[in-house]
Write a structure and sequence with these properties.
Blueprint (H helix, E strand, L loop, with lengths): L1 E5 L3 H12 L5 E6 L2 H8 L6 E5 L7 H11 L4 E6 L4 H9 L4 E4 L4 H12 L4 E2 L1 H16 L8 H5 L3 H11 L4 H8 L3 H15 L4 H11 L9 H4 L7
Parallel strand pairs: 1-2, 1-3, 3-4, 4-5, 5-6
């Protein structure tokens, strides 16, 4: 798993590099002190995950996240910061960050966050999780609207609706697998199909769209009855 570390503090970059290098499955392929340096690095080598500080000179982590996701949508980004400002949470998620972790987390928690995000999950520090839920609701009321044609929405199956509802609650693939009595692989496949069908970039956009749509499992009372028809394992 290839990782790039972006932070304007040399000590932080070096410390994180040493900590992560201790894990055999992580290869730190570069470090950067600002967003512009991140983009230069990406023109030469593509990581799986970027640890992105919020406050950096020249180009901050929020704007860099936007640029990275537009140019390299497959690259996952974890926002790493000492701040939990609402504005930063909103912008980072809006632009496609897969995780938001405060710098105070333990090294093992950070490692787990990288693994989770790399597998397609989302990682949000518990200290900001409540704010994120509120922000999703605010996004639903704001001008940041995600539209999906009605005919595509109508084509969603009961199981796909259930998956969407789970994503909107912030559950990871593992938690969704447990809740729906499926393997993580099956959940990943369903999620990929749903994102492709709705023409959405990632699970963050899916969660925002779900909140805007007002997805509620009670609206789909026949989900449990139909599970056996769609290849549950």
């Amino acid at each position: 798993m290839k990782v790039i570390i972006a932070d304007d503090q040399t000590l932080v970059r070096e410390s994180l590099s040493i900590i992560l290098a201790a894990h055999e499955d992580i290869d730190v392929i570069g470090t950067a002190s600002n967003g512009k340096e991140v983009l230069k690095l990406l023109s030469k080598k593509l990581p799986d995950v970027i640890l992105m500080d919020i406050r950096m000179p020249e180009m901050d982590g929020v704007l860099c996240t936007k640029e990275v996701k537009e140019r390299y949508p497959s690259v996952k980004i974890i926002i790493l910061t000492t701040f939990d400002d609402d504005e930063y949470i909103y912008s980072a998620l809006k632009y496609g960050a897969s995780g938001y972790v405060l710098k105070g987390v333990s090294t093992e928690e950070l490692y787990h966050a990288i693994l989770t995000v790399n597998k397609g999950g989302a990682m949000i520090n518990p200290n900001v999780a409540t704010k994120v839920v509120k922000l999703f609701s605010q996004m639903a009321q704001s001008n940041y609207t995600i539209s999906v044609p009605k005919d595509i929405v109508d084509s969603l199956s009961e199981v796909e609706w259930k998956l969407i509802q789970q994503v909107s609650c912030g559950y990871t693939n593992k938690e969704i697998a447990n809740n729906m009595y499926l393997s993580e692989g099956t959940i990943r496949n369903y999620l990929s199909i749903v994102l492709s069908k709705l023409h959405l970039r990632d699970r963050t956009q899916l969660a925002i769209w779900a909140v805007q749509t007002g997805v509620n499992l009670s609206d789909y009372p026949n989900v449990e009855e139909k599970e056996g028809e769609v290849g549950y394992d």
